[in-house]
Amino acid sequence: QTELRCKRYANETDLHSWEFELETTKQELQFLQKKIDMLNFKIMSGNKNDDYYTDQLKIVREKVEKFK
Question: Measured in whole angstroms, how far is the alpha carbon of residue 45 from the centre of its chain?
């Protein structure tokens, strides 16, 4: 009976440990997903800015060519 109690206690301890680890991992996953979303947004914004600056540079070059 004592051995079964020890095994049950060990199992219960493992279960609590795994449940805690699962919750911690879920929180880490949420943090990482937010970070991924933020980086994707920054990349998308950076690409839009790059396109805008490229277009503006093209316009300026065309204007400079007209003055030559």
Answer: 16
Torsion of CA 56, 62, 67, 68, to 10 degrees: 130
pLDDT in tens, the chain (68 residues): 899 999 999 999 999 999 999 999 999 999 999 999 999 999 999 999 999 999 999 999 999 998 87
The reported pTM is 0.68
Provide the total of helices (H) and of strands (E) in the chain, helices listed first.
1, 0
